[in-house]
Each structure stands twice: as C-alpha cells, then as structure tokens.
Amino acid sequence: MWTRFDHLKYGIGWINCQVKDSTGNVIYNETPDTRRSNDVHDSWIRTEQRIPTPKNCTIKVIFDTNRILFVDELLIRPEHKDVIHCDGDKIMVNGYRVEK
Fold it and tell me: CA–CA distance from 71 to each of 38, 65, 100 (Å)?
C-alpha cells in the first residue's frame, strides 16, 4: 500500500492490520511501521506486510492518524502471485509503476 501524509503536522500515525477467523476471533493483529520503509517515491511511502489469510477470514485495515492521509494501491494478494494492471500506457505490477 502507498500512503502520503500531510508533512506539515507532527507524527505519522499508524496502520493496523487485523485478521479474524470465521467465528470472529482475532488470529492476527499487527501494526507495520511505515517509518521503516526504504520504498519512497516523491512524498509517497510504500508499506508491505505479510498476513495470514485462512479460509473464510475477514481482513480489517485501520488507519489511525491526526492528519490528512492519502492511500493508493491498497493491494491484498497471494504471496507468490503477481497482480498486473494496465491502463493505457501505464502498467502497475504489484503496486509498482513500470515502463512498457
């Protein structure tokens, strides 16, 4: 997922990923640290998190921030599969813009 925060205000906020099984029990709860990402493009920060996804689970992503937050390319995909999106001359592979 790519995020961009209002850089004029202190703090960065938190992203929380939660997975519940089919009975509603939380089986995974993780808060990836966007500040540790080395993947930055202009003012956008890419955050990647591996999450378990058993059958019939529910995935919840929560953004807790005290500022304006932009989210782009929130992509949930199987670990060993690629997602390719073509739009005219633009190609996105797993959330990365590539040249044709």
Answer: 17, 12, 25
Report yes or no: 15 and 60 within 8 Å, Cβ to Cβ. no
**H helices of 1-100, where?**
none
The domain total for the chain is 1
Going edge to edge, which strands form the sheet with 2-5? 40-41, 44-46, 2-5, 69-72
Domain that residue 52 falls in: 2-98
Distance CA 27, CA 45 (A): 27
pTM metric for this prediction: 0.70
pLDDT class of 98 with cuts at 50, 70, 90: confident
